[in-house]
Amino acid sequence: MKIDIGIGVDIIGDIHACFEEFLEMLEKLGYRNGGDGLYRHPEGRTLISLGDVMSRGPQSIACMEFFLKHVKAGLAYMTDSNHGWKIARWLDGRKVQLKHGDELVEQEFLAYEQLHGTKRTKQLKNDLKHLLMNTPSHYILQENNIDKIVCTHAGIKDEFIGRETSRIKDFCRYGDVAGTDENGKPIRRDWFLNHKGELLIIWGHDPKPEPMIINNTINIDQGLVFGGKLTTYRYPEKEFVFVNAKQNYSGREGIDNPIQK
Ligand SMILES: [Mn+2]
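Above: inputs. Below: predicted complex with manganese (II) ion.
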């Protein structure tokens, strides 16, 4: 789960199937389509997704296929996430309830099968299952072999960093959730208040209108699919790059009205 930062990394928040905005982001960051379907940065920067690339928005398959190809080619990395894990289990044939936008992934696959046939659909589903089943809960980014940044979906405790257990995986997928309130919304504890030290933790999952910087942690989920924006954190530049949503795809209210994810 260690990645060398090299010349630089571009860490991208929750895409949620908003493929058009994601492509616009890649252009803005300077990545170019090499004609082989792969986007590369001319200086050799590395792309890192914090997961939840699918569900809720219009183009889950395109987003998942992008990461399938780019992870395989060593051009990108993607962490585990709550929607990613749900879709992984669904693709594995386990009994799961598809909701909160995951049902759209199933619909997309039905249309995909109509268009491309059963064989190709089965192959893609199998490849995606393997990708999503094997994503790590977090990555540790290093500069000159020194740990600098932790990338994870929903949060992490300091003592979990560099370890992988089922409890740690769940924490990184869902954050520090203490049950649900009377409306079914998760009650979230603020794990980031307990983070200490210089290691920078970049996370997403819980949409905030602007990047939220607390105790060397930065939330970069700005609610793209809810009509907000897609955020990239660039290191070593320590800059944010934004792409605004073309619309609110979620069928729900905007990000100021927090939504169960
Ligand atoms: Mn999430």
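Residues 52, 81-83, 153-154, 205, 261 surround manganese (II) ion (CB under 6 Å).
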